[in-house]
User: Fold these one by one.
Assistant:
Number 1:
Amino acid sequence: MLKVPEHQVAGHLAIDGKLGPLVDDSGRFYKPLQGDGRGNKELAFYESFSSDTRVPDHIRKYFPVCYGSQLLEASNGSGLLHHLVLQDIASSHRNPSIMDVKIGSRTWYPEASDNYIQKCLEKDRRTTTVSLGFRIAGLQLYEGKESGYWRPGRKEVQSFTVYNVRSILRRFVSSNSSIGNENSDCSFAPSIYGGSAGILEQLLELKAWFEDQTIYHFHSCSLLILFDKESVSKGSTPVPEIKLIDFAHVVEGKGVIDHNFLGGLCSLIKFVSEVLSDSKESSIKDCVESEKSGICTDNGNCQ
Amino acid sequence: MLKVPEHQVAGHLAIDGKLGPLVDDSGRFYKPLQGDGRGNKELAFYESFSSDTRVPDHIRKYFPVCYGSQLLEASNGSGLLHHLVLQDIASSHRNPSIMDVKIGSRTWYPEASDNYIQKCLEKDRRTTTVSLGFRIAGLQLYEGKESGYWRPGRKEVQSFTVYNVRSILRRFVSSNSSIGNENSDCSFAPSIYGGSAGILEQLLELKAWFEDQTIYHFHSCSLLILFDKESVSKGSTPVPEIKLIDFAHVVEGKGVIDHNFLGGLCSLIKFVSEVLSDSKESSIKDCVESEKSGICTDNGNCQ
């Protein structure tokens, strides 16, 4: 039984009779192959990537599993259409908070047409892509059983400034994200961004690979960052996850590192590590203050 | 007594009645302040940089010393003009081989005018700037007492391809650079690119700073790489040197890392480390072969 993905935060949605991806209950994600050649390019990437022995195992885990392609009824009712069959990343999370971060200070590639380059460049300049080396392309924050998800609309996302990005990276790991931007407590930062299995360590592992790999250049590709806020709130071990997605514009590296992706990744790493170190500082401050007053804070970060 | 610099490999030259920098015998370099505001921006950068306590000492050594500005007779005979007074980097080398590498996959900055951006973008796409994240903007290779320097003309430099860049990075550290591109022996790679005071270590030290610093964004800035081939040939300790130059387009970092410079720097690091590891491999091969034949190569790299 195919249905519209519940947790898709960016890209074309399969609603209102439009063409978009579908999911099933067994954890698979069906992405329609777009007719302009992009779909076939993405399929070709997955085929090349899965058989490339130069990609180390510890890097493969950052990519969705691909199960080939399959003919399916398209979501827009246009009949049978080839779909890329991928792992449904969100399916392993109960109430996932998700950020889709498009990496790189340019989304175009040298071989593209002038028209395509100008179109991308305009959007790159309008968003934080040029200034930050990445832009948030979509997100949802789980705020709790009652309020559900905060999922800003496409226009709002596209107008995010540097200030907004910084604030969202804080809200993303805050227990009080629904109250407002200014007072985000970042109380989940140590367990989601920090720690040996946290987002920062995963980003650093990816960075080390990007400093060396010259096989692919990942243009206009996104990092999906996911975690389950409820499991963190309940004290169970969180499993923050990173996956690279959207490979329709990947080109051969030809012996050159992907300096565009790497630069943006380093910029994101700096932002995430700043949220983390701010949260550590404020939890030390909390400790000092609670020691003075004789009470202990209950966020468990007072070491 | 002011004169035209002997070792200037890029930028405007003070010849044929044109405006350009001058040097004296005491090791100072006089750069005319251009009237379009660039000169004043560069002076302002040096003033801000020299008094900024956030810049660590081990990073300052990668920047030329600035002695302020001075009114001097311009090289084009137009009368008195303000000049930036800088350390003449080449003056401490007897027969310097020099590469001027403009770092970054874009030379423009978000705040610039549309016209300026299009002009830069066009040149960035025409050269290796977009593809490699850096371009060689000028160079001279010392080839020996008889042949003197190889210094390709501006047009030749601007037409360098990825292949040319790779080949020049090899020729730069070869004892047989004059023979031709294909057979570069890279025999100086271990002592110039390698070692604890070599170019690679210096680039890595700079990289670590760029992963963290959010004070400046260095647009259209160059890395000057210098060494004295004669002193290496004679067996004395070489002092390969790196200096950042050209700060007319530096803008405030505003809390964001310079991902454009960092990405290009990482790409250059990859190229340099490949020349170095190739040269190590071939010297091991030499060793094995000379052991077989009972003779030892004399390049001193046979460990």
Number 2:
Amino acid sequence: MEISLEELAQNFNLEFSGIKNKKVSGVATLEKANNTQLSFLANSKYTSQLTKSNAGIVVLSENHSDLFSGNKIITTDPYLAFAKISTLFQESQINYSGIHPTAVIAKTATIGEGVVVGPYTIIGENSNIESDTVLEARVTIGNNCHIGKNCLIKPGVVISSACHIGDRSILHPGCIIGADGFGLARDKDGWIKVPQLGAVNIGDDCEIGANTTIDRGTLDDTVLENDVRLDNQIQIAHNVHIGQHTVMAGCSAVAGSTKIGKNCLIGGGVGVIGHLEVCDNVTLQSMALVTRSIKKPGSYSSVSPLQETSQWRKSAVRIKQLDKIARKLNKLEKEI
Amino acid sequence: MEISLEELAQNFNLEFSGIKNKKVSGVATLEKANNTQLSFLANSKYTSQLTKSNAGIVVLSENHSDLFSGNKIITTDPYLAFAKISTLFQESQINYSGIHPTAVIAKTATIGEGVVVGPYTIIGENSNIESDTVLEARVTIGNNCHIGKNCLIKPGVVISSACHIGDRSILHPGCIIGADGFGLARDKDGWIKVPQLGAVNIGDDCEIGANTTIDRGTLDDTVLENDVRLDNQIQIAHNVHIGQHTVMAGCSAVAGSTKIGKNCLIGGGVGVIGHLEVCDNVTLQSMALVTRSIKKPGSYSSVSPLQETSQWRKSAVRIKQLDKIARKLNKLEKEI
Amino acid sequence: MEISLEELAQNFNLEFSGIKNKKVSGVATLEKANNTQLSFLANSKYTSQLTKSNAGIVVLSENHSDLFSGNKIITTDPYLAFAKISTLFQESQINYSGIHPTAVIAKTATIGEGVVVGPYTIIGENSNIESDTVLEARVTIGNNCHIGKNCLIKPGVVISSACHIGDRSILHPGCIIGADGFGLARDKDGWIKVPQLGAVNIGDDCEIGANTTIDRGTLDDTVLENDVRLDNQIQIAHNVHIGQHTVMAGCSAVAGSTKIGKNCLIGGGVGVIGHLEVCDNVTLQSMALVTRSIKKPGSYSSVSPLQETSQWRKSAVRIKQLDKIARKLNKLEKEI
């Protein structure tokens, strides 16, 4: 598809400068863009690439505007503008329409208008898929599920019985929604499995990353509010509740019954133990471990700093001696 | 299904108090239960919900008994009793019986009585599935595998050649049993893959979480003894041996050739490096890293404590200086 | 298959000692090998097993040669020699040849000579699979993909549109290539998804572990150079570039736009944050977190040492007080 500078500015309510009829038909990095492509500068680190860029149009902020003499879109948030513009150049990779002959769909299931059911998809009893949702291929949906409108569910996703997905949500390949929560009670001879009779309830405009797992609740549901965005390889345990607009980066995990507030930013590899409450507007830095409830917005970290291994070994020895070191210091202080 | 207070007490050999014919037909939390539902109190934290609960029957311990005037089951372990009782209310989500027409089963495979083979399941040469096991859908089983009786294997599971699963084991969606262990030898031009000629041997009454991976051994098998319970997203490397009744929480990992004892509790995000031995009855707290064998039962931790990031930065700087700090202190001590 | 001591030595250009016609037909550990099997000793820790072994042939180094009186292959790198020899005893587990009738293949896709397409595999528009590659079962390949020669792609793998895999690469079960990178821009009402218009480009002789995820790039590709070896449960974010011969152990992760050099060894559970550069020949110890670029080859660590929990609690309290401890010490030093 092709679009002009003027049309872009009008569509997204942005200011432009340059030849209004200049057309672009794709997007690229500043470094690689040619004259038929649009690019952007959001990070000052790449300013040198701006001056040398051959991009047909560049999206940038006011303070960088003088560095580029070509066609420009000027905005306070170039990254956001670029995100919106590049959706125009996204091509659907869905090759099918309607219901593929290999799909196995229960007679009691209801499929809305415009739904695409790709090859090898399975839909269980009484499940309902609302209009225009795409089940790309090899999706397995259990009984009594409800999937909202305009969702995109990618290959290999498993959605177990009674789970609910809201509108416009995207589930990336291999994610597992509604596996049993990890409930065990100890009997004299060993472990007894605690049945997990709740489900998973995911809101509108959510995104669940590849191979991420969200377990069903023990009695109540595990809940993700609207606009929650989860990266890959994340583990959400049973009975967890995650607030609106919260984002979690790859490989993070929240243990059972913990409640995470709204607008939280959870870094890669973070762990939050169970039965806690994290308030709104908390940022957890990469690989932090949270072992107590957090009641005050702000940024939190744990993790030792990186050192050359030979230096780290010395620090590690001293970390074990810390209590003695502190006591020795207190004693010396008294003596002085 | 409906069951009375008296029948419940008899079935599970528990003491009751109240109207013996009182019937319940489901389970719920104390907060949400109505008069037709059973609930439980195991954690004193929720005592306030007990006094206000509308539950038809509550399972609780002797010391909470006075706080509830309705129908009660009194036991020393309410959580365990609840686990057993709620299995009565669990409904099977398996819609099929017998062998689905889309299953691809090798002629040399043997399928026991009452086995359910769901849509798109593949079973390889000479593999044997024992009686009453359910392969829910889209399960891929390689050659020469043996799956025991009454197992439940969920969608998307892959069990590679020569692997053995015991009786009554549950494999959650997307788990991978018997992928190649990560064996590499360095040659002058790059890496050479070391063939992994062993398999995986999982005992009876085991549970393997969603998207968990257990690799086959290099020569011998990777082994899980009976009643081992693994949560989601766990990695078990080649040649590992895990003892009876050991439980691992989500995202933990054990590297190659390590032996974990019986009755261990391994927290979320824990890492245990290779070629170690962890004795019986060890608890590893969340995100601990084990780098030496553990010979003494008990609880172990690593991980720095969480701090506000601004405070953490100061601690991080000092952690790097720890050796100097300790030496300075020793020097001062001598001077005094 | 059977092979003699002399033939083995000739095939792999190794020195031997003993009966040249001695035949073996399999491999096993020193402890379990019988007279028809070959074994090896690479680690001095197992020397006691050597003297007692019944193996028909043992591969070992010069300095252990006197400890075994049977048939021997003597080499400077027994583990490497064993890796090469045991490939002779590896049996293919692929039961099919040609294209399985259940495969769903786009008419515009091109399939090379000798390719095996197993049951329930899906191949998209214009995708190309080169000669002798095996798609074992239930593999999903999107549009415009290119898979090289002699690859082995295991069940449940998803390769999304426009991705490229080189020759002789192995993709283990459940790995996901080309899911969307985690790109989000914040608008006033919530998050906007940033389209991910790049792809993934994996070189020759790579290995991608079970349930590992490699995301497509935002504009350019996410790249793995030749001979990169990734274990299970690894997360590679969008726009990452990994150099030749680099190896990553299970559960490690590299965040967006980071560049990892050649010949790096990345331990289990390691995290590398985004927009960094790690030079060649760096070793990252298990569970280290890298938050700054590394410009000097060598070994790096973070992570607190393991302690009994009661001791760890004391260290944890003191870690939080470290800045005060250091300042107090400096003050005392001045007073003295």
